[in-house]
Design a protein that fits this description.
two-stranded antiparallel ribbon, xylose metabolism (chains A, B, C, D), homotetramer, TIM Barrel, about 450 residues, alpha/beta, carbohydrate metabolism (chains A, B, C, D), Xylose isomerase (chains A, B, C, D)
Chain lengths: ~450, ~450, ~450, ~450
């Protein structure tokens, strides 16, 4: 079974001048960047679902990607899939992977059966982890594919579904803990609505708040030290998803007393679907203290759905990477490729090309960010732009010592209005681009 | 000067069968709807800026709308504009108007001059209000047109701009109070950024939080009983505006301890630019306790900027109106037409057509919502959909008495999974549409 | 098998005041509208695929709609499906249906097998058509679901795929002819590209032109009198689809000498995905002489993919219907519901609700258009707006008798510039809305 | 007056390692790229309007960019502006500029006056051209800013406006000819509609066809050897613009017999507003034989209006440049910066930063395209992908010798279906990205 990926070469760093398409040209795990290894900054992870379960299905067409483990006895296939996955991961040489429960093992007749099946396959996964040294960045439970979740998991109008979801998450969280996962993620694909006509927003918000609270409580009960992460997305599959974007989830966490307990797993393509740049979402999360982990992919700038493509423009990505570096890195988080190969990419090596290009794009983006930081001019320009706030008036305002009346007096006293200064956007953009320029 | 609108007829209710284009066919101020007058539900208001200051300018073309008060001595013109505005408002017969400081009176050389000019014109406005009985729904300060605000008002990198804005808002808030305004609005048109490269999100958030806090404190100091409202918009003029949507502003208010003090003024076209339906934003605000007031307009579903057209599809609007009715109305808020006539609509009667069509669309939407409520089937279906949560397990969860473990046990105990139920979306949509059908 | 829809009532016209949710309130087949029956204007058709093959699958979730014919022996199920479909169609009482070859019968091992299977099931379909009097609006071949078509059908880089597609279309076209179909449709779901890096636009255009030419030639060879229709869509499943919109396909037809031979099947949701209103696409096709048939559905104004919902806002749709009426109707074309019930709509009656609401929305939109036409003011205003062109200068220009020099002389002679006139948009929108007002 | 730009340095090529922000690091006019000079490939041009007339005005705010020639006597200012413009152009060192008539000289009371004013200022421009050697890439007439054009120029319901536009275009075309312009452009900013309710699409299409035909005839009459170019844009300022995109304009030219006479000026930001990538539009125009010239800018991927920013991501742009190189260059066309500095960029040097960054981005994109071509693997993969079409069956099809029947026979004969091949998208994207990687 593992022979499926046997023909693929093992990926190695060969430097920028290599013309070997399977070589890494930028990603060098132990290279120091601003005092930390590249691997530590990026903590790159492969998504089990896209890379080993994705089959090229789309809303208008049948699967195109043949994999030996797509047919045959379900449990045997799941075990074979695990072996093949780690054979691929070994060749790729990245330190982490991520999984959904249902991608690892097939659903059984009952929740109890499903739990047992998951445990059985995870034993094999754990053995492979030990054998290879590959670690788990995060686990999660798939609360969106099965018809029972069509109207939501935690936000379902039927409390039995809530209970079922709780059972599934409890098991997946414990499994993540057992495997030494660094984080646990919740993506509420069906936590949203299709029409307001049958939806009670306030009630569903209360349900979702309770659910997440119970997850956090359980994490502490079992001693899981990883981070609980919520992954925002604005829509798709629902018409409207509750965890729209970073700012929305922040408000949700504040409302339910979960700030400090929960952080965010931000995905590039979800950011753009929500009308944000990826770097906006990262910078916002950092400013609000909820930056957790990243899903690295890209959408198509002209298509309005989640295309989940591998990143391949390092200059674009360097602005996101800059925000990560400014935030001091991702802590327990990392950079998971929530990306899939295209439907026509049916050759085994396509999967490897995709990952090699993705990791190298990330590495190059990090190197660009490093150069921006070391150069210092962009940060300096930003600091100088706000320098006026270091004065007496600014400090009084920021520390809460002023009033509208006092500020108005300050303005009236000068007699004339403030004089605008250039925002220097073109120069700053040139500068940022320059470090991507070779 | 007021002769400009003299040729326009006075608008009266004539019932659905009237073929008089200037007649109201649905809006009957004192008609009772679910126990309250139409006027009380809608509290309709005319936007001084669009209706009396708008000139047809667009990014590719010069003004097309001639008004006598667009030229001549600035202060004399402002006084004439006020007279003309009230001549129009009288003919239209709506109870409210809204204003920005700089649309009422021209900016002076200094803040002190500008304040004095505003006061002088507002005296004339106040006289017209007394003469006509027309009231002020809300006032606001224009903190976005002048170059000094190009990099933000409260979020400006220069604290002198912050101070200037404070002086302007203090004066506009006090003027609003003096005129008996029911609310005071802040729209942060320039509170956002054009590039993250020169922007410190955390610092600007702190500035904005301080500013709004100072406004709230000043409101209490001067005894203003109206509501302070923030108006969300996702972008335009900035690349990214901080007050993106209801959920984002909710999080901001929570962060700065302003929940309970500040509500939201939700605009239809801003909602759609942010990727939401208007009814989503209203329902969200109601669920979160921050529903304040509405800006009634519509965007173009194929264009990506703020087209600010008058509403004209009552069935569409009925879903928004339904959420207002469910929320028990808007309190001190109302429904302001933040809408403008098209650039080619250069005849004086075009302005009247626009308002008559808009108010009648709102009135008909309210009547549709009334029929939905009285029929009861939609609300009943929604209630039944969540009925399972009234059981013991659901109540334990919602009141905080459950845990992930207990819920998992509940799910495991049943042995089989929950069975999905139809969401009945097509039937509910048919039902809602039926009440718009004549 | 046909018992699946047995519990559904037979749909009848009961007039606007009926509160029976399964009654037609506006669609009265023989009601005369502007001298033609409603049925003749609308020629409504049910889409075999969405209504009888759709299963609630989406990119994030498994099927939710159970139908007895979704399992069991493939050919037996296909025959049962045909019986059930006509049982539904009888209850609904619409005159037409549409089909794809692969939705009627399963694909076989070879093209020859597939053809034989299709023929066998179509015999059953034909018997049902004779029994019920229900007719075929159009047939088509599914050239997008099978992996062989992943890189296109006619535009595939492999000519063997082109040949296979030709074989499939030949068979489907002949079957459509045999069943008395009024049109034959081609939708090029995979005729587009995912990346320009592997795509030769010019060559693929040549292939597509040849393919369509061969279809037209074959139509004449077999004596098919129906219309060949191309269905535009801008994207999805491909990143970019060649038949983007009406104007694009018009250019394609002109380039390949196919104007006069081929018309367009315009879909509402495809129009909006392409950045057009539905009425724009209809009016454009009418102006260019290529208006053929319509796919009636709607997209979600906030989502960026093909949601294919049933139409339910008659006022919105009345503007599209107005263009159809102005064009004198659709000729051999009709109005096919290319619409599907939502994933949560799992009850059998949901399917009936959807169609009843859809047909009534169309009927009411037609009645609104009738009122607009009979009132005459909108058409009159439009005629008057262009009246100047009836003068000598205008006629000389339009008939090709003028030159830039002569026109410039005309302008210079007057000495002053032309004076703009109001476009009267608000009044016209009010008027159009008024006829939707009950 | 020309002292405004006096403090700016003269821009020179200093190579990739220069840290001088005003140095060119990639653009070296005479460097040979694939056998032609960089300057010949790019033919870069500065847009007179954005660079010397733009003032920072936006729909929500007043001008921010002070220029000495924005006030004072209109004609004197226009002359001063011309001097300043050429002072800037000299410092920048680009070979071309482009202009609109009304940006060069102010409109007069009558068309005759306006023409005279334009001639007078163009005399100064011509003198500056002779002095500096800077050439005119194209001229155009502004048919969108003045209120007379609010309902269109050629498509205006009033034929007097058509005549006025003819007079203006005749004059601008002759002026362009006199100045040795390489092309003449028509952008129909107001050739579209705001509402279909007052619009006759067919009639307006006829008017527009006549207008363009008259322009082409006049070009020949006066012996202008440059190319007539139409510039597509989908919307803004109108709700819907007729010249939507390349494919739409192609159809228009075909319909009016203008293929061979007219080519296209494609703008990046217009392409993305229309839902296309820039490279798609270029490749389409090349395939259809209508590739003329380019407007180099970029839009914001999250904003829905024309932001007209300077290009700054060479990897992105390299895909567009690759299509230009494949098409053999732009002939008489060139690459005009239809780009403007941001509203906050109020310092004189911001304008220079913008152009330096833009030209260098273009140069680097060209160098990336060169490397892609020289490497050859991408082109080779594409050629191999279609190799099957070189066989007997493929050639028979492409040369018109086949039929649906014959092709079907071909498919049936083989008995089994074609086998899909990988599209290799990830590998090709990696390859393309690699050449941008330094």
């Amino acid at each position: 079974m593992s022979t499926f990926f046997d023909a693929l070469p093992t990926v190695r760093f060969e430097g920028p001048d290599s013309s070997n398409p399977f070589a890494l040209r930028y990603y060098e795990a132990q290279r120091l960047v601003l005092g930390r290894s590249m691997e530590d900054w990026l903590r790159p992870a492969v998504a089990y679902w896209h890379s080993f379960v994705g089959n090229g299905l789309d809303p208008f067409g049948a699967p195109t990607h043949g994999r030996p483990w797509f047919s045959g006895d379900a449990m045997e296939s799941a075990l074979n899939k695990a072996d093949a996955a780690f054979a691929f991961l070994e060749r790729l040489g990245m330190p982490f992977f991520c999984f959904h429960d249902r991608d690892v093992a097939p659903e059984g007749e009952t929740l109890r059966d499903s739990n047992a099946r998951l445990d059985q396959v995870l034993e094999r996964v754990q053995a492979q982890m030990q054998r290879t040294g590959i670690r788990l960045l995060w686990g999660t439970a798939n609360l969106f594919s099965h018809p029972r979740y069509m109207a939501g998991a935690a936000t379902n109008p039927d409390p039995e579904v809530f209970a079922f979801a709780a059972g599934q998450v409890k098991h997946a969280l414990e499994a993540t803990h057992r495997l030494g996962g660094a984080n646990y993620v919740l993506w509420g694909g069906r936590e949203g609505y299709d029409t307001l006509l049958n939806t009670d927003l306030k009630r569903e918000d209360a349900q979702l708040g309770r659910f997440l609270t119970m997850v956090v409580e359980h994490k502490h009960r079992i001693g899981f030290k990883g981070t609980i992460l919520v992954e925002p997305k604005p829509m798709e599959p629902t018409k409207h998803q509750y965890d729209r974007d970073v700012a929305t989830v922040y408000g949700f966490l504040a409302r339910h007393g979960l700030l400090g307990e929960v952080k965010l797993n931000i995905e590039a393509n979800h950011a753009t679907l929500a009308g944000h740049s990826f770097e906006h979402e990262i910078a916002t999360a950092a400013a609000l203290g909820v930056l957790g982990s990243l899903d690295m992919n890209r959408g198509d700038p002209q298509n309005g759905w989640d295309t989940d493509q591998f990143p391949n423009n390092a200059q674009d990505l360097s602005l996101a990477m800059l925000e990560v570096v400014r935030a001091g890195g991702l802590g327990t988080g990392g950079m998971n490729f929530d990306a899939k190969i295209r439907r026509q990419s049916i050759a085994p090596e396509d999967l490897l090309h995709a990952h090699v290009g993705g990791i190298d794009t990330m590495a190059r983006a990090l190197l660009i960010a490093e150069r921006i930081i070391l150069d210092g001019r962009i940060d300096q320009a930003r600091t100088e732009r706000y320098a006026g706030w270091d004065g007496a008036f600014g400090q009084t305002v920021l520390t809460g010592g002023s009033s509208l009346e006092a500020a108005a007096e300050h303005a009236l006293a000068s007699g004339i209005g403030p004089r605008p200064r250039s925002g220097q956007q073109e120069w700053l953009e040139n500068l940022a681009g320059r470090f991507a320029g070779g």
